[in-house]
């Protein structure tokens, strides 16, 4: 029996107060994964050219802290991937270093794991799983979605 058009087929009618006061909410657990190759790639909390508020939840190793509240765009894992600089784009001092010392100059590209658009929640688990060829960091975040 419909009540002012609110219930439909198998729907359940609840009080609006439960929704507005966040009593009737649901949560979903989502897993975010990033792969870090052994060697040149590194996990760090020192990511150049990123705003400080995006890095606020990272620990000293560059991994999000357990229990942190994260919002859209926040960094979950700070990762830098080195890239070889083309010979023509070397600054004169870089060419001199390469000529004298045989040193190669690298730049780093920011390849962080970020929380996607629409995501927010509390970090409930952080796991570092290591294999013989590469490292994988597993992050489980509980994201709160309101049932309105």
Automatic annotation (TrEMBL):
One of its GO terms (cellular component) is DNA-directed RNA polymerase complex. InterPro entries: DNA-dir_RNA_pol_su2 (IPR015712), DNA-dir_RNAP_su2_dom (IPR007120), DNA-dir_RNAP_su2_hyb_sf (IPR037033), RNA_pol_RPB2_OB-fold (IPR014724). Residues 1-131 form the DNA-directed RNA polymerase subunit 2 hybrid-binding domain. This is DNA-directed RNA polymerase. GO terms for biological process: DNA-templated transcription. Belongs to the RNA polymerase beta chain family. Its EC number is 2.7.7.6. The lineage of its organism: Eukaryota, Viridiplantae, Streptophyta, Embryophyta, Tracheophyta. Gene3D superfamilies: 2.40.50.150, DNA-directed RNA polymerase, subunit 2, domain 6 (2.40.270.10). Keywords: DNA-directed RNA polymerase, Nucleotidyltransferase, Transcription, Transferase. GO terms for molecular function: DNA binding; DNA-directed RNA polymerase activity; ribonucleoside binding. It is an enzyme of class 2 (transferase). Pfam families: RNA_pol_Rpb2_6. It comes from the Eukaryota.
